[in-house]
Amino acid sequence: MTQPTLIRREGAHLRTALSLADRSVPVLPLRAGKVPFGNCPACRDNACGGRPNMKTPGPCDCPRPCHAWAAATTDLDVITGPAWAPVWKQAAAVAYHPGGIGLTVVDLDHADAVAWARRVLSATRTVPTTRGEHWIYRGTMPSVNAVRDGVDIKSTMVYARWLGTGTGTMTALPDVVRALVVKEPSPVRLAPRAITVPVLVGGGECPHRMPAYLERGIAMAEQRITQATNGVHAAVYRVFLAVLSAHGRCGCLTDTHMARLFAAAQAKGESLRHCTDAWTNALTRLGL
Question: Using CA atoms, how far apart are residues 151 and 144, in angstroms rounded to an integer?
Fold first, then answer.
C-alpha cells in the first residue's frame, strides 16, 4: 500500500504522526485508555510478555524496542510500514516522547493543579487537556508521577499524548520543577572505624580535609555524571567508586556531599534506589 493511500485510509492520527515525525518529533500510536500497542507483529497483543502501558519496554527479543516510549520513532518507514499500518485504524490518539526532543511536560490533572502552576511556575507554552493542562518546557529531567496532587512530570523514558501545539512561548525548565523530583537520599553512612590518616611527605594535614580540595573533587564528580551520554548506570557507579576511593577513608565526606552526587545522578534519570545500591556497592568494593 502506498503512503498516500494509507494516509487517506487511516485518517487524522496517521497524518498527525507523519507531520510530527517530519518535524523530528518521535511518535507512537495509542489505543483506547492511552495505552500503546505492541508495535511489531511478534509482540502484538503482548505476545512477548511485555507491558506496553509501563515506562519500560517489555522483555522481547525484537531487533529494536517496540513497546511504550521506546517505540517512539521518526522513521517514516516504520510509521507507515507493515507493523504499524494495521494499528492506525484502531488508534485512539498519538503520543510522543518529550525527552526525545529535549522537552519536559508538566501534566496538570485538575483545576487545583493548574492554579498551583500559575502561582509557582514560570510561564511557558500550555496545551489544554481533558481535565487540566500540559505546561511544556525546554530541557529534560527524570519522569515521575504524582510529585504533588494532580501533577506528573513527563520527560525522559515516558510518553505523553499529543494534544496540539498549544499557546504561549516555550521557556527553559525552571529549577522549581526539577526540585519536585529530587528526594532526600536515604542516609548511607560509613561504618565507624579507626582510621589512621597517613602523614604526608613534608608534614601538613591530609589534603582531603582542605575545603577547596574536597569541593573541587565533588564538583568534578558531579560534572562527570552530568556529562555522561550513555551507560549512565555504569558511569554513576564509577564516579561513586572514585570519590569513595579518594575520600572514603579520611572521614571528610558528609551527607551533604553524598546528596549532591545523588542529585546529579537523579537528574540523569537514575532512581534513588539505584543511587543507594551503587553507593553501597562501591563501599563494599573498597571494603569500607
Answer: 9
At 202, is the pLDDT very low, low, confident or very high (cuts 50, 70, 90)?
very low
From 96, 101, 79, 75, select the one nearest 88 (Cα to Cα). Answer: 79
Point out which residues pair with 153 in neighbouring strands: 106, 144
Question: At 279, phi and psi to the nearest 5?
Answer: -65, -45
Report residue 89 as a C-alpha cell. Answer: 485504524
Regarding pTM above 0.70, the answer is no
> What is the 3-state secondary structure of 59-77?
CCCCCCCCCHHHHCECCHH
Q: State residue 64's pLDDT score.
A: 60
E-strand ranges in the chain read 27-31, 35-36, 93-96, 103-108, 125-128, 133-138, 144-148, 151-154, 160-161, 171-172
In single-letter form, the type of residue at position 232 comes to V
Taking the C-alpha atoms of residue 206 and residue 59, their distance in angstroms, rounded to an integer, is: 50
* pLDDT tens digits for range 112-143: 999 999 999 999 999 999 999 999 999 998 88
Residue 13 DSSP SS3:
helix
Helix (H, G, I), strand (E, B) or coil at 266: helix
